[in-house]
């Protein structure tokens, strides 16, 4: 009898794989058990100043985690370490059980399934929304080759599904430069999603959005959780309240508090260094 295998290569009864086992290939993510992201004792210094100071943090598979903290707490530096932009002086960083992020370059980290969205949207303004998604899907090909290659039906379906998810199906043929700020942010998120990342890092995704756009973004993130793991850095506490399950507060390069939004909002140290100001 073949044991049913889930998307994560787990047997449905949680037991060891038998029958048609899928073995994790070198360079492939294995988040079948344990956290999807594991940071332990990470320190990063800039000219003697510790931007990250023995930071330890884990994200579970499919989790939506909010990261908050005052300016200079180390949020961006942490994402730079995860994506290979900055090297840690010491500490451990694993993506799944097998991928040592400290030994991978930025391109390899993207390929392995970590997508990052910076604060400012960076879409191709002259190209249509559809073409932007097409370019993102085939990021390893040249722009020329991508736009003149014929898309297979599976790729077209993937673009259509993504357009629906980011609610831009009616704007597929519009130049991206004509979209509102919020729509550009969604398009960029779509450009990440189409590459099927396992972990998404999102830096202040609702900055500059209208209230309605912010609400829609909250809905989008809640719908992505479970299928993807999300790390959302955000100062907008109303938005955090809409999406938060577990919140991590960073301060001076370390985790100051972690728990439900309610727990961290009532934490004396958190009020002192961040929320009360
Ligand atoms: N390349 C660098 N060289 C020197 N210092 C740096 C560098 N990058 C970051 N820092 C310092 O490290 C500290 C942490 O910065 P980081 O940008 O990670 O904080 P942050 O939590 O993202 O802040 P914000 O909320 O303002 O974006 C800050 O004091 C910052 O000045």
What does this structure look like?
By secondary structure, the protein is α/β, with parallel strands linked by helices. The chain folds into two domains: 37-123 and 179-275, 3-Layer(aba) Sandwich (Rossmann fold); 124-178, no CATH class. The chain has ten helices and ten strands. The chain has helices spanning 75-82, 106-112, 129-137, 143-148, 153-165, 181-193, 211-224, 237-243, 261-265, 268-275; strands spanning 37-46, 49-59, 64-68, 90-95, 99-100, 114-117, 199-203, 229-233, 246-251, 254-259. Helix 3 (129-137) crosses helix 5 and helix 3 (129-137) runs parallel beside helix 6. Adenosine-5'-triphosphate binds at residues 46, 51, 69, 71-77.
Helix-strand category: alpha/beta
Low-pLDDT stretches are 1-20
Q: Please give the CATH architecture of the largest domain.
A: 3-Layer(aba) Sandwich
Number of strands: 10
Tally of distinct domains: 2
**Small-molecule binders:** adenosine-5'-triphosphate
Which strand-content bin applies to the residues? 15-25%
Q: What's the total helix number?
A: 10
Using the CA coordinates, give the radius of gyration. 20 Å
Spell out the helices and strands N to C: EEEHEEHEHHHHEHEHEEHH
Superfamily (CATH H level) name of the largest domain: P-loop containing nucleotide triphosphate hydrolases
What characterizes the major β-sheet? Answer: 6 strands, mixed
């Amino acid at each position: 009898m073949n044991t049913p295998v889930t998307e994560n290569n787990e047997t449905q009864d949680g037991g060891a794989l038998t029958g048609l086992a899928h073995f994790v290939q070198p360079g492939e993510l294995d988040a079948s058990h344990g956290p999807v992201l594991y940071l332990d004792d990470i320190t990063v210094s800039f000219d003697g100043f510790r931007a990250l100071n023995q930071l330890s943090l884990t994200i579970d598979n499919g989790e939506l985690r909010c990261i908050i903290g005052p300016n200079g707490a180390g949020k961006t530096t942490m994402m730079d370490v995860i994506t290979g932009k900055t090297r840690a002086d010491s500490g451990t960083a694993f993506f799944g059980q097998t991928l040592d992020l400290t030994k991978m370059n930025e391109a390899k980290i993207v390929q392995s399934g970590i997508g990052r969205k910076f604060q400012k949207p960076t879409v191709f303004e002259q190209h249509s929304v559809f073409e932007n998604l097409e370019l993102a899907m085939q990021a390893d090909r040249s722009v020329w080759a991508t736009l003149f290659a014929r898309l297979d039906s599976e790729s077209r379906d993937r673009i259509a599904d993504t357009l629906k998810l980011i609610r831009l199906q009616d704007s597929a043929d519009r130049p991206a430069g004509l979209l509102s700020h919020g729509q550009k942010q969604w398009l960029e998120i779509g450009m990440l999603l189409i590459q099927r990342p396992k972990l998404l890092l999102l830096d202040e995704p609702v900055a500059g959005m209208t209230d309605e756009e912010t609400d829609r973004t909250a809905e989008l993130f809640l719908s992505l959780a479970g299928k993807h793991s999300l790390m959302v850095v955000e100062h907008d506490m109303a938005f955090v309240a809409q999406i938060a399950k577990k919140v991590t507060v960073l301060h001076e390069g370390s985790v100051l508090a972690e728990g439900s939004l309610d727990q961290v909002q009532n934490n004396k140290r958190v009020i002192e260094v961040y929320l009360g100001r």
